[in-house]
Amino acid sequence: MRKGMLLVISGPSGAGKGTLAQRLLHRDGFAFSVSATTRASRPGEEEGVHYYFLSDEAFAAMEAEGDFLETATVHGHRYGTPLKPVMQALEEGRDLLLDIDSQGARTVMEKLASCVSVFILPPSMRELEHRLRARQTESEEDIRRRLHNAAGEMEQLPRYRYAVVNDDIEEAYTQLHMIVQAERHNTVRYLPEIR
Ligand code: 5GP
Fold first, then answer.
1. Looking at residue 137, what is its pLDDT?
2. Which burial class, exposed, middle or buried, applies to 55 when counting CB atoms under 10 A from its CB (0-12, 13-18, 19+)?
3. Are 117 and 10 in contact, with CB atoms under 8 Å apart?
4. Does residue 141 carry a pLDDT above 80?
5. Ligand 1 atom at shortest distance from the alpha carbon of 10
6. Which of 11, 52, 129, 176 is positioned for an S-S bond with 15, CB 3.0–4.6 A?
7. Atom 21 of ligand 1, nearest CA residue
8. Residues 171, 43: Cα–Cα separation, whole Å
9. For residues 116 and 68, what is the distance between their CA atoms, to the nearest angstrom?
10. pTM, entire model
11. CA 104–ligand 1 middle distance (angstroms)
């Protein structure tokens, strides 16, 4: 039986990861790895669907128990991928999508060499700023912080296996879809993890 694929997608806030992730979930049979975070929920976000919203104390307790595959501090808040659901999905042959930052992605790449990592790029920094402002979900201070962090995120690009520029959403999705199709046939998914 084929093992599940762990697909890690990263990219600066506003690069269009969210839209691409939704398509992978609805059209390509991926399940979403629901992260834990200490940030406040945004309008429309549901507990256990988009995130598990935790207090700083609850997050630290899970971390101390070794319950995370990876953790990172992003835009001043803690984020982490719960370990158990990931291992379970992979063992059962289900494909799982992780939308995480580059620090967390680095940990995952080190721990699970068979993961597939894709970096989503905006066509330009100017366009990124435009998109961040247009979605009107963050404060001005948050937008500035996200733009500043985007430059740092971009430097991590060479660590990823694939890069997709999201200029046109249809084209970007097609590219991601083809990457996924090819990777499902990677021999690594038919062999025990060699590590
Ligand atoms: P947002 O607060 O906009 O939902 O996410 C901010 C950033 O945190 C995004 O780049 C997202 O990919 C990242 N992120 C979300 N969940 C996790 C996680 O579990 N681990 C890590 N390392 N990053 C995460």
1. 80
2. exposed
3. yes
4. yes
5. 12
6. 11
7. 100
8. 29
9. 19
10. 0.91
11. 9
Return the half-sphere exposure (C-beta side, CA atoms, 13 A cut-off) of residue 81.
24
Q: Residue 156 has which token pair? A: 């991590």
Identify which has the larger pLDDT, 175 or 190.
175
- pLDDT for 13 equals 80
Question: What would the pLDDT profile of 70-118 be if each residue is shown by its tens digit?
Answer: 999 998 899 999 999 999 999 999 999 999 999 999 999 999 999 999 9
> What local confidence, expressed as pLDDT, does residue 85 receive?
96
Q: Is 3 annotated as a binding residue?
A: no
Distance (Å, whole) CA 106 – CA 103? 5
Between 21 and 2, the more confident residue is: 21
Testing ligand 1's pocket by substitution, the residue of 53, 99, 138 carrying the most ligand atoms inside 8 A of its CB is 99
Ligand 1 centre to CA of 1 (Å) is 31
Residue whose CA lies nearest to ligand 1 atom number 23: 100
Half-sphere CA count of 152, side-chain side, radius 13 A? 10
pLDDT band of residue 191 (cuts 50, 70, 90) is low
Query: In a mutational test of the pocket of ligand 1, which residue from 101, 103, 139, 147 has the highest number of ligand atoms less than 8 Å from its CB?
Result: 101
Q: Of how many residues is the chain composed?
A: 195
- Atom of ligand 1 at shortest range from CA of 68: 19
